[in-house]
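User: quick one
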Amino acid sequence: MKTDVARIAVLGASGYTGAEVVRLSALHPNIKVTVLTGDKQAGKNFSDVFPHLVAATNVPKLVKIDDVNWADVDAAFCCLPHATTQEVIKKLPSSLKVVDLSADFRLKDPAQYAECYPPSPSRHAGPSSSLDGLQHPPSRPRQRLPAAAPAAAPAPAPQAKLILPDDILIDAKSGVSGAGRSAKESNLYCEIAEGINSYAVGSHRHMPEIEQGLSEAAGAPVRISFTPHLINMSRGMQCTSYVKLAPGVTAEDLRAHLAATYEGEPFVRVLAKGAIPHTRHVRGSNYALMNVFPDRLPGRAIVISVIDNLVKGASGQGMQNLNLMMGWEETTALAQLAMFP
Amino acid sequence: MKTDVARIAVLGASGYTGAEVVRLSALHPNIKVTVLTGDKQAGKNFSDVFPHLVAATNVPKLVKIDDVNWADVDAAFCCLPHATTQEVIKKLPSSLKVVDLSADFRLKDPAQYAECYPPSPSRHAGPSSSLDGLQHPPSRPRQRLPAAAPAAAPAPAPQAKLILPDDILIDAKSGVSGAGRSAKESNLYCEIAEGINSYAVGSHRHMPEIEQGLSEAAGAPVRISFTPHLINMSRGMQCTSYVKLAPGVTAEDLRAHLAATYEGEPFVRVLAKGAIPHTRHVRGSNYALMNVFPDRLPGRAIVISVIDNLVKGASGQGMQNLNLMMGWEETTALAQLAMFP
Amino acid sequence: MKTDVARIAVLGASGYTGAEVVRLSALHPNIKVTVLTGDKQAGKNFSDVFPHLVAATNVPKLVKIDDVNWADVDAAFCCLPHATTQEVIKKLPSSLKVVDLSADFRLKDPAQYAECYPPSPSRHAGPSSSLDGLQHPPSRPRQRLPAAAPAAAPAPAPQAKLILPDDILIDAKSGVSGAGRSAKESNLYCEIAEGINSYAVGSHRHMPEIEQGLSEAAGAPVRISFTPHLINMSRGMQCTSYVKLAPGVTAEDLRAHLAATYEGEPFVRVLAKGAIPHTRHVRGSNYALMNVFPDRLPGRAIVISVIDNLVKGASGQGMQNLNLMMGWEETTALAQLAMFP
Amino acid sequence: MKTDVARIAVLGASGYTGAEVVRLSALHPNIKVTVLTGDKQAGKNFSDVFPHLVAATNVPKLVKIDDVNWADVDAAFCCLPHATTQEVIKKLPSSLKVVDLSADFRLKDPAQYAECYPPSPSRHAGPSSSLDGLQHPPSRPRQRLPAAAPAAAPAPAPQAKLILPDDILIDAKSGVSGAGRSAKESNLYCEIAEGINSYAVGSHRHMPEIEQGLSEAAGAPVRISFTPHLINMSRGMQCTSYVKLAPGVTAEDLRAHLAATYEGEPFVRVLAKGAIPHTRHVRGSNYALMNVFPDRLPGRAIVISVIDNLVKGASGQGMQNLNLMMGWEETTALAQLAMFP
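Assistant: Done. Structure below.
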């Protein structure tokens, strides 16, 4: 199938991650977007919903998901909200390759899912790929940032016993697009502009999935503190992770370990010593940038990492997964560099 | 030369338009960036100057322009400030293909140039291409937006005698990147955020070149009023042009004429009736969007047009010109859709 | 009543203009806010709805408008949406002094109102003061900017026959707070950030009221073109008005006339020759700044004017009206200078 | 002196904190600004340097500091950069009351000052008041936030042995105005917009002064980690402080202790349980808001605090100090509520 063109459906195409899949697909020689679903917007031209894609003239109109003829689809991006996602995925043909951008299948423990995402329908077997990994075996063994990257930047560290597993504090700052396109007072321009606030302090629902990824990496239970902040930018996520180094380990050891671990990853860069990653350096691109710094408090280090939440944190990572699932070159359609300013 | 790889120099690569040429080049199969000049930054890695391009690992270090070996260069983008530009271009080998993004060669009348850009060195023969057109004949006759697009959106109208040539009022709003990367108090974040101001009211230096383009199109002298405004966005330019229709002509006639004129242009779209172009719809892309509306005042119409000033207004248009000069497909490396949000 | 304290109700206090009335009242020695209404938010502490006013500890909880005891209220600010406003004002005791910030009573012609604000309930007699003027006679004759200021900056000009009444083109740019606090997709941060767009081109509902004001000033019918643009700022409105000068009149004549007209107005400033008003110069203050410039097209001038739409364009102007109605010093609680940066 | 009017000089009035002193002074019945210094801008009208203060018509022109007649000045705000400050203060008459907004006198240990602010002139005796406290005894004993508030929000906690003194991690996010008005590439709008970055990781110069304040409060050495981040807002500072609770202490204990400690402070509010302070809630006001939350990691708490860096973090706190030094009501000219949106 390597050189063929696959017919792709984008489910939930009227949201930001759906639009981003279409944007990236325009540079993909193996993808033809043949189905766009959006139940509330069915019947509309895609460019009426997303006028910035007016030049994507070869995409179809939006349809209801129940009107899709799945025989005409080779693979699907599922860009639906949680809960909705599992209901939809349940009905898809089992032969369909699915890249799921939602949270519905990231947590392996259904009880934990039910706690984090109430009300919690009983969850069935998942899609081909959710963002935390591939179930279709990729062509080679890989270190992969899970969906909550860059919060998971320190992931390889507990595995190697370089940091203590019970004292990881992650201070995250993210852009507004992560909250989606639905109209909410709290996301109005006037409520967001020129300011910062934390939210869900002590209780954010992403913590269990970050812990799950870190625990798997460490081979032992890891507990974290994760405090998200919302800032006035559309895209981007930055994490400042405060970690306690294992006895005898230096921040430079941790940096070297991360650099070695991610070497060969096409979209992860551990920066040169001392260089600080900005969210502006990854805007619109599929790259994750990170670095490690000694903390002023003895025995501690600070890991700083950035991504574009809509690309590496969602649609770009999904495209990367699809490329691997389809046997295409992993970087296809993802070579765009960041856009600055 | 169609399938060959050309060796490209970017002169003045430490500014925003230089960075944008490198960003676009990453998607160009026929371009290898072999020279980056920046006299003040010579010796630095490009990613130290523009960390968002850290993934462009195959670009060279910055050098001084006097240290370039021109025998190793097939074509050059000149991203230098005006006045500097003509001094530099004077010294380049005449065989070198040059795409000039500066204002130095846009005005045909040296006296007018001297008035708009004092102090005014005597100007010599120009480069292969400045942004208002091509001196190397392109493969087919073309309607082209000049550099000051989208201010020139009404350009085809006087030619067709659809609007009066002496009552064109252009209210322009543009992002801050147009002012370049040099440190000036007036462009600090705190001076720009959350606000708008006009500048150069009644006297902006772009007026003569817009008039030159419009006059050529009309075959008769055209005079305009051009009032630029600076708003708190990094990229983008929007023009609201107030025009007086010729007797018997309607706004819809004008709209139809522009649509017909730009049909076949790969990067210009006259939108569906009533659709309003936003700058957000072209961010990061090479597209110009425009539309025409009836004014409430009888006999008048309003033309609204948008571009990304760093792409269609500078580096993207330059790349489009280079593609034509080199005999490559005109749209190469420019297929990226706009990035939103 | 000059030194007494008046008991003030704010109707529709859960919107931005309601909050702004409370903010300004904190500096007013003669005002005690005793009633805040908000039907959907009734029962809440005001600081739960507007946490930035947490320090306004002496304000009451929100109540439903039907639960207000009007005997305990001396004057009311009506900050309700149009249509709702007239229903509410109809029921208020006729003795109550009312400053109305809505559009419901600005248009004198009910038929025109019905056309601009459909569906159009039949309109009854208005409040004590709507923003375009005072019905309670002020202490001295005054030139006043109507609500749609600064669009009306040229208002005094037709009166004096300095400009032609049928060729006034107003290009307006305004912040997002003018659209209120209700949750709409088009006002989400991601939809607004880093961009500009026009809207309601050729048909904005404010045109008739601006024309009404200008026509009254001119003593003859005036027609305008008004094209609003939305930009990524919370507060502020800027108008660039393109006017045609009467024969023999210069831009400097017009400037001198405006300066003379507004002399003595405490909150209007015609700037020094050549100085350009920015919206950033009035943020949070009750000032209107303006200036006049010669256009490049012969016989034309450009009038530039700015206000903070929530202060001079709404709550501050309302407070100024209340001060006059109550016989207080006109500038009370309005002395705050603009906040920059 | 209570009802008299004091003649005030603002030294370094061409920077943002100088402008802010003038803005606040407009609401102060006891202050007449008689001197504004700015060596580079001497001779200019203040409104040419800060056009948003055009309505402050009673302020003098800028002069050179050497041209000030100190006999005409009762008190001075010193808004100069560090190093310059001590040179200037050295020459002032010893009778002059001085409120210093710089960092020059915050550190008590000259050696530490020399390390943090190289090159380090030998430092002489300080001003009447630097922002970390008063040398003129105030009228009553007070708990005061030091200059680096809100980083110092946990300050009262070590004193009461509620948190461990050697495991305090402060993640700070601040607006761009803290960097002043001088033209630097890194503070250009295009470099700042729509993004976040940390800086001075592991080495920020404010750490020693925060430690000094905390150590004094605790009566024992305290060491902190302080990681500042720059975000795209003009004003505001938010700190998320991760602290380890002493055995048996709960987050609610810490919250109650802070609430009790700051009770009676006119400008500090510990919010209701669960309420999250946003920087938008203090913009333009002199308030500090804070709250305490249990961390997900056992035995830890999170303290969140916000201020406007130009008001509570600089000019407003300075005004509060001046009020106390002069025997005026502490809150004079500081009653303005926050401006939102």
